[in-house]
């Protein structure tokens, strides 16, 4: 087992990883930008190294400074968390070449699966159903139009390197495609330094259902069931839950088997997630693979009792999986809400600022993953997610009731957050009845506007 791990991230996920390391008796090294001198992760780690100015390009994405920090402190492994360098094959490769273990899959697999259009081609060959679309990347606008007219509008234009809901555009006609093409290309170049695009059929009213997998370096792989992440704003999740109200045991097994095919076909190891869309006929299609730990991993942890971050570390250290598929069982129901510093009234624009007063909920079955504290100033340069509340109940009804009372206890004074907005969703009759798809929030907004 490693004796020291460097965490190449910030915020709640860095804190989450530090906690797992401490419980395993592993020393931790935090890296921080000049804006994060007072941040929780900087304070909680055994050692902390400043890696550059606030701008993430110069700090949390600065491979050279991060690797130097690892060498200087004698860290044997790097946990990349999510976002930042977590799906960067080049970084994973230079870690390996520097004799530092990258806690994730091999760089070869990140390269294969991290690019969304390439991974679809690979999955198709492996016999996993994929969303119909361009075969690989788009070469030109005219080619995009040709493919779109073949598969039929509406279509989704997407960045191959995209993530966090960015670099995606829904288009209904050739004219809209013409307008969107250069815009998405530009957006992708700015956000991901890669303007490669692909295109796929727009699945109407789907549910986003993803399968969590764990695989070791010795060929053993299992899945930990699903998470339903259909409640999204701007194509990014804000509420996730498990089990999904649209899956029965047969469909769960089918999707689990498809996820295992994806793992085997790509030579995957460590924790990963296969994202699918499930349509009205309960047909499912591979959408992308996230080759890292995900924001909503605590949902699965509450359902299974397995600590996914600790398993990631054990797998990276070369240990054999401690469970077989038969050992995995699920209990009750879990829901997660993402609390963001954003204004839902103004198209979810981020609202950084200083937290004047803070109270976070607790109690039976309530877990909080966060890195904020009273008096904390949220830097404007990073992601707007402040905290995750995860509630476990004996069934969905109790999980919802718990989440509602937890949200009622939240006090975050001094900044604008989406707490009231989340509460409204939990109160919605359609949500309560499991009667929703990924268009839920958009449809709700349109109904509201009509009433005004
Ligand atoms: P998840 O897939 O874990 O549910 P999100 O899609 O919300 O999470 O992304 C989690 C974080 O990682 C966000 O801060 C998001 O902006 C960032 N992120 C995700 N994918 C990428 C990517 N390909 N490139 C850069 N940042 C990413
Ligand atoms: P990201 O890498 O940003 O997570 P995804 O490819 O996973 O992007 O898509 C994010 C969300 O966008 C999905 O969860 C879904 O709601 C919507 N979406 C993406 N592709 C399609 C599609 N072909 N049809 C319908 N919705 C889609
Ligand atoms: Mg996704």
Per-chain topology:
Blueprint: E1 4-7, H1 11-23, E2 27-33, H2 40-44, E3 47-52, H3 63-73, E4 77-79, H4 89-97, E5 101-102, H5 107-114, H6 116-125, H7 141-151, E6 155-159, E7 168-171, H8 174-192, E8 197-201, E9 207-215, E10 221-233, E11 236-242, H9 249-266, E12 270-278, E13 284-290, H10 297-304, H11 308-316, E14 333-340, E15 342-343, E16 349-350, E17 357-359, E18 366-370, E19 385-393, H12 396-409, E20 411-413, H13 419-427, H14 429-432, H15 440-451
Helix pairs in contact: 4-5, 7-8, 12-13
The structure holds adenosine-5'-diphosphate (ADP) (2 copies) and magnesium ion.
One adenosine-5'-diphosphate binds next to strand 6, strand 8, strand 12 and strand 13.
Q: How would you explain this protein's 3D organization?
A:
The chain is an alpha+beta fold and 452 residues long. The chain has 3 domains: 96 residues, Rossmann fold, CATH 3.40.50.20; 70 residues, Dna Ligase, domain 1 (2-Layer Sandwich), CATH 3.30.1490.20; 245 residues, D-amino Acid Aminotransferase, Chain A, domain 1 (2-Layer Sandwich). The protein is 35% helix and 25% strand. The protein contains 15 helices and 20 strands. The strands form 5 sheets. The protein has an 8-stranded antiparallel beta sheet, sandwiched between helices. The chain has a 5-stranded parallel beta sheet with strand order 3-2-1-4-5. Strands 7-6-8 form a 3-stranded antiparallel beta sheet, covered by helices on one side. Helix 4 packs antiparallel against helix 5, helix 7 packs across helix 8 and helix 12 packs antiparallel against helix 13. It starts with a strand and ends with a helix. The mean pLDDT is 97. The structure holds adenosine-5'-diphosphate (ADP) (2 copies) and magnesium ion. The site of one adenosine-5'-diphosphate has 15 residues, from strand 11.
């Amino acid at each position: 087992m490693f004796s020291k791990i460097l965490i190449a991230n910030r915020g709640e996920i860095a804190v989450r990883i530090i906690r797992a390391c401490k419980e395993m008796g592993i020393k931790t090294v935090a890296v921080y930008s000049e804006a994060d001198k007072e941040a929780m992760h900087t304070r909680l780690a055994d050692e902390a190294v400043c890696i550059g100015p606030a701008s993430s390009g110069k700090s949390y994405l600065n491979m050279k400074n991060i690797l130097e920090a690892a060498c200087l402190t004698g860290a044997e492994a790097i946990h990349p968390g999510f976002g930042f360098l977590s799906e960067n094959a080049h970084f994973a490769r230079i870690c390996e070449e520097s004799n530092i273990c990258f806690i994730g899959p091999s760089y070869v697999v990140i390269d294969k699966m991290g690019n969304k259009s390439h991974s679809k081609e690979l999955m198709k060959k492996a016999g996993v159903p994929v969303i119909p679309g361009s075969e690989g990347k788009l070469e030109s606008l005219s080619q995009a139009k040709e493919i779109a007219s073949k598969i039929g509008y509406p279509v989704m234009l997407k960045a191959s390197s995209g993530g966090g809901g960015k670099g995606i555009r829904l288009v209904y006609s050739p004219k809209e495609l013409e307008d969107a093409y250069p815009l998405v290309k530009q957006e992708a170049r700015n956000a991901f330094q890669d303007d490669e695009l692909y295109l796929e059929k727009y699945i109407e009213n789907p549910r986003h259902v993803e399968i969590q997998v764990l695989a070791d370096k010795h060929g053993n792989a299992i899945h930990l069931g699903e998470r339903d992440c259909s409640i999204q704003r701007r194509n990014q999740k804000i509420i996730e839950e498990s089990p999904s109200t649209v899956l029965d045991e047969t469909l769960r097994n089918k999707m689990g088997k498809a996820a295992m095919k994806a793992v085997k076909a790509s030579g995957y190891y460590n924790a990963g997630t296969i994202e699918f869309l499930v349509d009205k006929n309960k047909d499912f299609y591979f959408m992308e693979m996230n080759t890292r730990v995900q924001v909503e991993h605590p949902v699965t942890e509450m359902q299974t009792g397995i600590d996914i971050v600790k398993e990631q570390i054990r797998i990276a250290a070369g240990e054999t999986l401690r469970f077989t598929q038969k050992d995995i069982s699920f209990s009750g129901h879990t829901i997660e809400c993402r609390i963001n510093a954003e204004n839902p009234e103004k198209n979810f624009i981020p609202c950084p600022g200083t937290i004047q007063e803070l109270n976070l909920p607790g109690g039976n079955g309530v877990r909080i993953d966060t890195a904020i504290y009273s008096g904390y100033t949220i830097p404007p340069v990073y992601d707007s997610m402040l905290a995750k509340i995860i509630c476990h109940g004996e069934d969905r009804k109790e999980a919802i009731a718990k989440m509602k009372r937890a949200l009622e206890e939240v006090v975050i004074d001094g900044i604008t957050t989406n707490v009231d907005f989340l509460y409204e969703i939990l109160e919605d009759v359609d949500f309560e009845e499991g009667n929703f798809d990924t268009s839920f929030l958009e449809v709700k907004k349109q109904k509201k506007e009509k009433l005004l």
